[in-house]
Amino acid sequence: MKILITRSPLEGEKLVRYLSKFKISAYNFPLIDFFPLPDLDIFLKKINFLKKNDILCALSKKSVFYASKILKEKKMIWPKNICYYAIGNSTANSLSFQTQKTVKYPLNKENSNKLFNLISKRKINNKNVIILKAFSSLNILEKKLTINGAKVIVINCYKSISKFQKKEEEIKNLKFDVIIITSVIILKELYNLFLVRNKRSWILKCIILTISNRIAEKAFFLGWKKVVITNSIKNENIKKKIFEIKKKFDRRKRI
Prior knowledge:
By secondary structure, the chain is α/β, with parallel strands linked by helices. It has ten helices and eleven strands.
């Protein structure tokens, strides 16, 4: 069984080394690089103007990472008297860890529409709302909140740049059985590399191992048939699912 890991160099290489002890072939290649954006300076100014019961929404773990990083650099803290929301479970866990506050998030589907429905249960007219997001993210939440009277400030915390061009042929020639995906952006990059020109690519036969229902739904939509969800980005949880997959994989090979 051969595994493609698309995590950051630190976490990805840890997982590669661990799996090699069990003679599981794994290759780590982060498919995109992330870079912080100047909007983070605006975030530092705007966060001080949030009042009691104002709202902060995080649309990705990476946005929480960069926002937290710049706050620590400037020796500032997250406000304690505002309401925190996140797009999904993993982002909520990250934001809660940084703020030490309860973070609400949609329990069913992880998307902007469901997040808006959750936020709109409270009075949002004239409320200040900060949205932390990636540069490439859609503005569905911003539009809906604005229409309903909220004063929305969008902070594009970071942008992503594809790394495919550097090692495209190397990845294409390896042929994997399992691919670990930790974001919708990475999934789309993978799709663009293999499937835009070749809809019958072998990669659709791979098992997608991912960390959330939102990514899983997107994988099914793009054409993958086998998707496994860990519900956690931690390597420990990913390892458990890999061994479960390996047992089934080995059993099929013996038949």
